């Protein structure tokens, strides 16, 4: 009688949880298989090389239209892997193809946006060239010619790229995929990386899905022994056929295993122990680094925690900046609330690099700023680590207050990048996506509700309405606007704001007997903004919230007016 299956966790109700550890293989099989082994490599290296080769082979066969069942049978014969490893390699290849199809649609959309913007800039450059030629200014005309030539090349390059992407979409194909990494292949072609590095990058992974009926994962089995975790990896190519069953299927000998210690971070050990006791399935991916060390990524599904925040209490608004975040504690009335008695920001114990590495400035009226200076210039893993620490602190504050977190719903697409090198560098170095995603993931794991809101004009509204009223910085004011927007408040133009605009107008009107100054007074740009505001401000409060937050609303002109009078 078969055992009843356990009720799996619904993916909608649960969340994916990944733990990264390090595997130290110690016990290897004594024998080798001359058919599959290459040189003096150990059995685990051979298994990883065969699995990666099977993935690339399945990728090409799937593009040709072969079915999963056919490839599963052929793969076992061609690469010597067992049925599960071969099926996992096929599924890996299918996921790559699926992700490439999704990326193709996104890339077409972004390229169309870039092309339209490049054509507009080309038109501006051609007008500047015509004016320079008409004025007879040789210096400006030569500079304009170079600009026009560069922008024509930009338009041509984007148009060719768009045609190629659309051809892939129309033909049902995908762009070329470089296994091992496109950047590494370019370095190999340039002589800055060796062929050996390229080969290692293409054969350094082994992946095994979990199976609830097989005790978690039959090919990479976790266990807890003598106060520590161990991992046993099946070496399927060493299994040999000893006959066939009644249905003609091969009967194989039991495959040996590579066993060793598995180191896991202390904060995840209890969760992993509970996972093994429950018998739930888990997925393991083994990755070999360039220095020969093995990283193990263990992924499983856990039940979503109960929500510990209540939106009726208000929101904690968060404004993201290149060097940290600004927080505003806002009540349900839409006004900032003082921090509760005894409130303190927990200092991360893991940070001990230098003094001032983690700076917190608390204002008693409900605002604070967390500054991590290294975020603005650190690279790679260091920046990712600091963002994770920052997310943990923000979520801890939110849990202590019992309020949901309000964040900006930022656009992470590449189409925001332009031909302006200065803007591109700023946008690329500002880790919008990593900071927002890290906070949202941590909040979801801790049961903290997060509400993304439309970010348009948050800094402008904070600058004009709340900066002077509460004596705070523009970042704190933006966080306040974000929280108010999450609650549902509309940002009306108040009498105080109208008086500020009127005072600016009176200040810019030239006085009698005053000397003219370059860029001072009522310039044409400022006069145009004031004229537009005279028509927008009286009707602003009667508009819908969507129209009040639209791009060309009164806030857009107020932003330009503030920039023109800095």
Distance between the termini: 80 Å
Helix content: 40-55%
How many strands in all? Answer: 15
Strand order of the largest sheet: 2-8-9-1-7-4-3
Please tell me how large the radius of gyration is.
30 Å
The dominant shape is globular
Beta percentage is: 15-25%
Question: Unreliable segments (pLDDT under 50, ≥5 consecutive)?
Answer: 1-12
Give the biggest sheet.
7 strands, antiparallel
Q: What do the pLDDT scores average to?
A: 88
Oligomeric state of the chains in view? single chain
The helix count comes to: 16
Structural class category: alpha+beta
Structure explained in plain terms:
The protein has 566 residues and is an alpha+beta fold. The protein has 16 helices and 15 strands. The strands form three sheets. The chain has a seven-stranded antiparallel β-sheet with strand order 2-8-9-1-7-4-3. It has a six-stranded mixed β-sheet with strand order 12-13-11-10-14-15, with helices on both faces. α2 (68-79) crosses α3 and α8 packs across α10 (432-446). Residues 1-12 have low confidence and may be disordered.
